[in-house]
TrEMBL record:
Taxonomic classification: Bacteria, Pseudomonadati, Pseudomonadota, Alphaproteobacteria, Hyphomicrobiales
Annotated source species: Roseibium litorale
UniProt entry keywords in alphabetical sequence: Oxidoreductase
Protein name, UniProt field: Mannitol dehydrogenase family protein
Superkingdom of origin organism: Bacteria
Pfam entry (one): Mannitol_dh
Domain Mannitol dehydrogenase N-terminal: 30-277
Signal peptide as annotated in the record: none
Domain Mannitol dehydrogenase C-terminal positions: 286-475
Length: 494
């Protein structure tokens, strides 16, 4: 019989499961993490758990936080199991499980409760996983999107912030007034130069609220960038059953992830940091080259296989990767059009990194879904694919395959507008995307005219011509024929 996960039952879980070697009462908080989803619990929380198991830095425990309805649900679930999480690493050669205890609490789900926690002097770092689309970046300019309704809402409710950045500003103002040194803000989201993007959001909103405070934040608050990596599927009944039947643990919110895990960050923490280098974190002067490698090759690779795989009817990523046309398309696109425009990193082979990514995608134990890769395209494409297009245009390099990737996305958006397809488009711009994608069947410019996503890309003649030709072929001949034609052209080129 499975045992309910709790501090009380930890000693009863058996030797096959790694449990904390430290006592919960020995931990004190040093970090507030906003956005307690699966990725955070498979990544940052695991690194801290490993560190605490070494007997180090017990004053850097986590307090979870968030202000969205799903944060409230997570808080309720984790509170019932003493903030513990079962993490299963899905190694195809054999599963292993650990229970992590790095989180010792969770703020109330309202801005006031979060601000109260953020002003505590012992909180020296605030980390974020709020999704790539949560930073209010203007797609046209790359700057802060002051016109976003959420930001306008904070501006109209002076003293009652609802956005994460408004909350951070309010807490920093109180710390400043009380003579408490500011916390460091560390983004753990998949964004190029995510520290700069986080700073842009905080300072940008602060300038509109209180310009004097904005200057203080700009000068006194550290925003180091970091590159994070660990494929972590959503939790479903599949994962709960796996944990219960394989390891005898009744965990309402377990996390299953691949065994690969990477974290590279800039070492800029004025108020100190945990010694994460002791558990495999890489600290570097400039994380940008590592971020770019990961965003363009791994995240861009995920985007590349997402939409053709969906059009071909695949459910799981590993199933799609067993299709020679999908695997061939991934490697051909990244090798020919992405790797040549990514700046080299001394000692790093991009070809080896690509092969590692392909192996990770093909791991059947992970059970990652094509649907997960397809969601939120209007935020992910401008971060993972379109920058490669911009760089290829600037360098005068080929972009035929990148244009095909965008055409796959367009055709997918049109398909989801058909209820009989059984596929739902999960995107904040769903209606806009579907309408434009349907119109693009006869007027390809309609899709690229979404300038809040594509900027001026629709004005580029070479890209537009390639996109239009690929989209017509997808409607006329289908995804399989288009993939094979592209791969044949690559064979001729090579």
């Amino acid at each position: 019989m499975a045992r309910q996960l709790s501090l009380k039952t930890l000693p009863e879980l058996g030797s096959a499961i790694a449990i904390p070697s430290y006592a919960r009462e020995d931990l004190t908080p040093g970090i507030v993490h906003i956005g307690v989803g699966n990725f955070h619990r498979a990544h940052q929380a695991v690194y801290l758990d490993r560190l605490f198991n070494k007997g180090l830095d017990h004053d850097w425990a986590l307090i979870g936080a968030g202000v969205k309805p799903y944060d409230a649900a997570m808080r309720e679930t984790l509170e019932a199991q003493d903030w513990l999480t079962t993490v299963v690493e899905l190694d195809p050669h054999g599963l292993n499980a650990r229970v992590t205890g790095a989180m010792i609490g969770f703020t109330g789900i309202d801005p006031t409760a979060l601000i109260r926690t953020l002003i505590r002097p012992e909180i020296r770092i605030v980390t974020l996983t709020i999704t790539e689309g949560g930073y209010y970046v203007n797609a046209k300019t790359g700057g802060f999107d002051a016109g976003h309704p959420d930001i306008q809402g904070d501006l109209s409710r002076t003293g009652d912030p609802q956005t994460i950045f408004g909350i951070l500003i309010a807490a920093l103002a109180l710390r400043k007034d009380s003579g408490i040194a500011p916390f460091t803000v560390l983004s753990c989201d998949n964004l190029p130069e995510n520290g700069k993007v986080a700073k842009q959001a905080v300072v940008g909103l602060a300038r509109l609220l209180t310009p004097d405070l904005a200057g203080w934040i700009e000068n006194e608050v550290a925003f180091p960038s970091s590159m994070v990596d660990c494929i972590t599927p959503a939790t479903s009944e599949r994962e709960r059953t796996l944990v219960r039947d394989t390891f005898g643990i009744a965990d309402a919110a377990p996390v299953a992830c691949e065994p690969f895990r990477q974290w590279v960050m800039e070492d800029h923490f004025p108020r100190g940091r945990p010694r994460l280098e002791e558990v495999g974190v890489e600290f570097v002067e400039d994380v940008a080259p590592y971020e770019l490698m990961k965003l363009r090759i791994l995240n861009g690779g995920h985007a590349a296989i997402a939409y053709p795989s969906a059009l071909l009817g695949y459910t799981y990523v590993h199933e799609a990767m067993s299709d020679p046309d999908i695997a061939g398309w991934l490697k051909a696109l990244i090798r020919s059009e992405v790797i040549p425009i990514v700046p080299m990193i001394p000692g790093i082979s991009f070809e080896t990194y690509l092969e590692t990514c392909a192996e990770r995608f093909a791991n059947p134990a992970v059970g990652d879904t094509i649907a997960r890769l397809c969601l939120d395209g209007s935020n992910r494409q401008p971060k993972f694919i379109l920058p490669s297009v911009t760089d290829a245009r600037r360098a005068g390099r080929p972009l035929n395959g990148l244009a095909l990737e965008v055409a796959f996305w367009c055709r997918y958006c049109a398909l989801t507008a058909d209820n009989s397809s059984g596929i739902a488009l999960e995107d904040e711009r769903r209606d806009q995307l579907q309408t434009a994608a349907l119109s693009a069947r006869h007027d390809p410019a309609a899709f690229l005219a979404l300038t809040d996503v594509f900027g001026d890309l629709g004005q580029d003649e070479a890209f537009f011509t390639a996109f239009a030709a690929h989209l017509k072929a997808l409607w006329d001949d289908g995804a399989r024929a288009v993939l094979k034609r592209y791969l044949s052209s690559q064979t001729l080129i090579s």
